[in-house]
Design a protein that fits this description.
Helix content is 59%, strand content 16%. Strand 4 (71-75) and strand 5 (78-83) form a beta hairpin. The protein has 2 domains: 2-252, 2-Layer Sandwich (Beta Polymerase, domain 2), CATH 3.30.460.20; 258-317, Methane Monooxygenase Hydroxylase, Chain G, domain 1. It contains 10 helices and 9 strands.
Length: 321
């Protein structure tokens, strides 16, 4: 359950492992804070952490059960933040979930799904000047990492949208284009739901609405917020473009169906001519003057060929064949 537990003093990590029972005590020291990383803890496993840091029961319930939308909530003197990292794996968009408890002298991260934070911690430990700002610096590092990883996901979505555009407007129709558009639009909407709700919490952090975020960190959160807004713009562009592509695809299908119907109607009209003539002379009435005529048969065949050829030329001229 416990991935890492460390105390940072004056922006540097204290050597050695820190037991959970001593974490709360270490967090009360000046110029120090504790960073605890947990992975999919159960109720019983998380209970000791909850007691040590006096975490709110509603936030704890959300952290254990997961499946929350991105949000920022205030519980007394602490913050509860929910983040939704995303990644592409085998053309499938996968989401993880990171839930963060931020308080005076501590930050607790609870991870669900594939969203490892080890690289974030290692990278942040190389910035002691940033870690001197307290646990808010760790929160910034996590949010910045998640927002940066949205960019390759959006780029992959853009690539898929371009491929679908080429398929829709290609001369050779693709049978499952509509299905691919719906699947891609579902992914775009899922990413939209994971990214857009994060804009307001980041704006609040950038404006310094919470005392746990030091003034020196506000510029960093403003930068992340600006990056997030760019990601949101690209996601919305993808969504609008997919809507247009879907409408264009439906129009293309309708046009192709109309073309097929015109071809069927034209060939049907041509086939009716020999069927009509042969049907008349196939009635076998006794008193039909043409039956005893020596040139009746070749003339009927000539009339069939001539009329069918004339109809064929006409339908070709008007674009039905």
């Amino acid at each position: 359950m416990i991935v890492d537990c460390a105390v940072y003093e004056s922006g540097r990590r204290r050597p050695g492992d820190l037991p959970i029972l001593h974490a709360c005590e270490a967090s009360r020291r000046d110029d120090a804070f504790v960073w605890i990383g947990l992975y999919e803890p159960s109720q019983d496993e998380f209970d000791s952490v909850r007691r040590e840091f006096d975490l709110h029961e509603l936030a704890v319930e959300d952290a254990i059960n997961a499946h929350q939308r991105p949000k920022l909530e205030v519980y007394g003197d602490s913050l509860f933040v929910v983040l939704k990292p995303a990644r592409y794996c085998d053309d499938e968009l996968e989401f993880g979930e990171i839930l963060i408890f931020l308080g005076e002298g501590f930050i607790i991260t609870v991870r669900h799904g594939e969203a490892p934070l080890h690289d974030v911690r290692v990278h942040t430990e190389q910035r002691p000047d940033l870690l001197e700002c307290g646990p808010g610096a760790a929160l910034y590092a996590i949010v910045d990492w998640i927002v940066d990883h949205y960019l390759p996901v959006v780029s992959e979505l853009d690539r898929h949208v371009e491929e679908i555009e080429r398929e829709v407007f290609s001369p050779a129709p693709v049978t499952n284009t509509a299905e691919r558009i719906y699947e891609l639009k579902r992914q775009v909407l899922g990413l939209h739901a994971a990214v857009v709700p994060l804009a307001e919490p980041l704006d609040l952090l950038a404006r310094g609405r919470h005392q746990l975020i030091e003034e020196n960190l506000r510029a960093y959160f403003r930068d992340v917020h600006d990056h997030l807004l760019r990601v949101i713009d690209r996601i919305e562009n993808c969504r609008d473009l997919l809507t247009s592509v879907l409408a264009a695809n439906m129009t293309q299908v309708t046009v192709r169906q109309n073309e097929d119907m015109r071809k069927i109607s034209a060939w049907g009209a041509i086939i009716v001519v020999p069927a009509l003539i042969t049907g008349i002379y196939g009635m076998n009435f006794r008193h039909m003057p043409e039956l005893g005529w020596r040139f009746g048969y070749p003339l009927a065949i000539f009339a069939i060929v001539l009329i069918c050829f004339a109809l064929y030329r006409y339908f070709r001229r008007i674009g039905w064949l």
